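Morning - NDP inputs below, output right after.
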Amino acid sequence: MDVKAIVVREHGGPEKLLYDTIQRPEPQPGQVLIRVAYAGVNFIDVYHRTGLYPVETPFVPGMEAAGIVEVTGAGVEEFAPGDRVAYAMARGSYAEYAVVPAHLLVRVPSGLDLEVAAAVMLQGMTAHYLTHSTFPLDQRHTALIHAAAGGTGLLLVQMAKMRGARVIATTSSEEKAARVREAGADEVILYDRVDFREEVRRLTGGKGVDVVYDSVGAATWEGSLDCLRPRGMMVSFGNASGPVPPIKPLVLTEKGSLYLTRPMLAHYCATREELLWRAQDVLGWVLEGKLKVRIHKVYPLAEARQAHQDLEGRRTSGKLLLQP
Ligand code: NDP
């Protein structure tokens, strides 16, 4: 059976996202075939497309979706056809159908739209591990969060506030800054207009922040290190502006015996228990209204190219979804 999908045949710009027809994938033992209702667009899809994160071509991009179980592979007992499910971290969601290992799936609670579930799995679990595990925040801490109006950023700000931390956030425009304030940030810096280092120094009385959550990468790396208090933690978790160049460990000494980590979601969902903890917290908070999800736009699957152009062009705030 033929189905519609986005296919990348060679690495490159958004024009390499081809709207095409592929053979419907078959679930192998332990896998589930999902009819995709909404696929999430994430910056990691850009890294896969450009080849920054190595992936063999041809491939179907997309690491996140929500939809309906169509067929289960041998040995799958937890799910059955018709179940409403969502997942992150299995590639191939920019398509009408995707196969996913059953151990990555979670049930979408009744009362929660598949659209919202697709919007919050990857970025929500990321914000969860960053605030609860990588650097467990509490009311004693001040955090600097870059790109705070983004899909991940808005969730990260809200979770940091839920943990009781003071949040200093950065973004690029007044319009985005208003959204970041609405999400609960205590201070917002327009980092393209002012030196965020000086602002952070001023706002912390010269002390520096306890942790920087930096997903911008190359453009903010140096400045971020200068914002930390002695023995603070640099959490470099993305490369939206390009990867951080190689560093000398002595730089960490010079800047105050800093800690540096470069985490990724898969390592923080290492067991089924850990995955369920994060996913159920995130989906539960959305259901309770404690965590707000901003959907920037739902694009038809055929317009994946436009979605990538908008994301990379810094024109978005919140989640981008594709609808097959
Ligand atoms: P966003 O919605 O945050 O979009 C990226 C934002 O980054 C832009 O809107 C823009 O915000 C900011 N930005 C700053 N400089 C640039 C630039 N040169 N080019 C493009 N964007 C820039 O995307 P996501 O929420 O999907 O991802 C955010 C980051 O988090 C990415 O780096 C991603 O790789 C990372 N991530 C890492 C994970 C992990 O486990 N390690 C998991 C999930 C996400 P502004 O206009 O405000 O500057």
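Note: The longest strand covers residues 31-41.

O.
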